[in-house]
Amino acid sequence: MAHTPVNHPARPIYRAIGGLVGLYFVVFGGLGIIASAGNDFFAQDDTRVLGQGTNMGLSLLSILIGVVILVGTAIGRNLDVAVNQWVAYTLMVIGLAALAFLQTDANVLNFSIMTVIVVLTLSLVLLVAGMYGKVGTDDEHEAWQKARLVL
């Protein structure tokens, strides 16, 4: 608790950054649906969007992830913090699993190495946005300040 800032001065910026990550996923997914129209749902071909491999499955998953992030960002009230952190951890697992299965038939989401890099980078950005976006009362902020100075 003492390491997570409360009422950080740049929290609106971090909230906006989280929203931009969500918007990126929605745009990537939308473009992926257009690019992979007519292909199999889990096609493993050379379909590329924004330099990243994709298929219909990954495109729909990206839109779902982006909408979840955007809804959390729109609601705020520390829901965005929880959503950003959980989605970031989930994206890290997805990205590392995709890296493990990159050159195999298990690559059902048609990840490329660029897709892995982008997903892992955006997950780290989202995690930072979640860690610095917490809002609290003045008493919580004062308690965090005191705990931080003790460490």
Question: Can you characterise this structure?
Answer:
By secondary structure, the chain is mainly α. Helix content is 66%, strand content 3%. It has a two-stranded antiparallel sheet. A hairpin with a 2-residue loop joins strand 1 and strand 2. Helix 1 runs antiparallel to helix 4 and helix 3 runs antiparallel to helix 4. The longest helix has 25 residues. The chain is elongated and about 55 Å long. The relative contact order is 0.20. The model has no long low-confidence stretch (mean pLDDT 90).
TL;DR of this structure?
Helix content is 66%, strand content 3%.
> How large is the count of helical segments?
5
Number of strands: 2
Task: Please state the structural category.
Answer: mainly alpha
Low-confidence stretches: none
User: What percentage of residues falls in helices of 4 or more residues?
Assistant: 55-70%
What characteristic shape results from the CA principal axes? Answer: elongated
- Biggest sheet: strands, sense, closure? 2 strands, antiparallel
- Strand percentage, roughly? under 5%
Distance between the termini: 12 Å
Please state the CA-atom Rg, rounded to the nearest Å: 18 Å
The overall pLDDT average reads 90
Topology:
Blueprint: H1 11-35, E1 48-49, E2 52-53, H2 56-75, H3 79-100, H4 113-131, H5 138-150
Antiparallel strand pairs: 1-2
Helix pairs in contact: 1-2, 1-4, 2-3, 3-4
